[in-house]
Amino acid sequence: MAGTAGKEVEHLIDLMAKLPGLGPRSARRAVLQLIKKRGLLLEPLAQAMAEVAIHARECGICGNIGTSETCEICLDPKRDESLICVVSDVADLWAMERASVFKGRYHVLGGVLSALDGVGPDDLRIPQLVRRIADTRVTEVVLALNATIDGQTTAHYIADQLSDSPVEITSLAQGVPIGGELDYLDDGTITAALKARKTF
To answer: Which of 21, 58, 169, 186 is the most exposed place for a label (fewest CB within 10 A)?
Structure first.
């Protein structure tokens, strides 16, 4: 059936199929729906994607995704700059923000340590975290990493790197199941976990 919709449409289907959660069949259905609702969905989506491709960038401080050199969270004077929440990726930061309970700043690592995947400390934003804490008035670091083996290995490594620092190191407590990922948790679970954080 490859090529039956024309090379441009097939190319779009192939690209969509590379997105998380979409396989070839789901991508084909999504593209058909976009084409059927061209004016309502496809054209605005194409325009929005072009805008994001031009303007989206990583925050130079925390690693969040925004449209300026420094994200809105880092620029917000109402945020508690003495409190940093460490997350593995931007999806986890957004999950924390959906819960609307954390009022500090963030630090996005860009992944977790993984011997199997060849991801070491220098592949993540761990050195930047250590420098950031040394240069600012941070008093607490919340390790909000996934309750997986790699997530917990990363948390232990960060705690070790900060062992000489006077900051308190805490981690999310109840509500986060072993093997669970923040992006899939509901707001109530994240809220309970953040409020019951404990010393790491």
So the answer is: 21
CATH number at residue 128: 3.40.1360.10
The interaxial angle of helices 24-36 and 7-16, nearest 10 deg, is 120
Dist CA 139 CA 136 (whole Å): 9
Domain count within the chain = 2
Residue 58 has pLDDT above 90, yes or no: yes
Residue with tokens 């620092």: 165
The band of 197, judged by pLDDT with boundaries at 50, 70 and 90, is confident
Range of the domain at 166: 77-199
192, part of any domain: yes
Contact between 65 and 90 under an 8 Å Cβ cutoff? The reply is yes
Mean pLDDT of 74-92: 95
